[in-house]
Write a structure and sequence with these properties.
Layout: H1 15-29, H2 33-38, H3 40-60, H4 66-70, H5 82-106
Length: 108
């Protein structure tokens, strides 16, 4: 994890990018329903952080932050949306089917 040697399939990022990804990882993970089930303590920690951001935004007069708005999502998983995930899977399956037909008919 802390090595900088390139490996098969790895990407190179700057230290700043790695720090940014690390700081945003909890925001991303709390949108996953499995993560919410497995790590409820981290979800609570994120809720507390978002409440602190909301309070700071109100004090500073800033309009809503997108991550704060995610907490109020109807799914109850801080932005996780099962229907859109299922739609994405269906579109992917349709795309694979179309691609396989194109390849099959281009061989003849």
């Amino acid at each position: 994890m802390v090595e900088t040697n390139p490996t098969l399939g790895s990407i190179e990022t700057s230290t700043a990018q790695k720090r940014r990804f690390a700081s945003e990882s909890l925001d991303f993970n709390v949108r996953d329903s499995n993560f919410v089930k497995l790590f409820p303590d981290l979800v609570e920690l994120q809720k507390e952080r978002l409440n602190q951001r909301r309070a700071a935004a109100e004090v500073n007069g800033l309009a809503g932050l997108s991550s704060i708005n995610d907490m109020n999502s109807p799914s109850g998983t801080l932005g996780g949306d099962l229907e859109s995930a299922e739609m994405m899977k269906a579109c992917l399956a349709l795309g694979v089917a179309v691609l396989s037909l194109v390849v099959a008919f281009s061989l003849f």
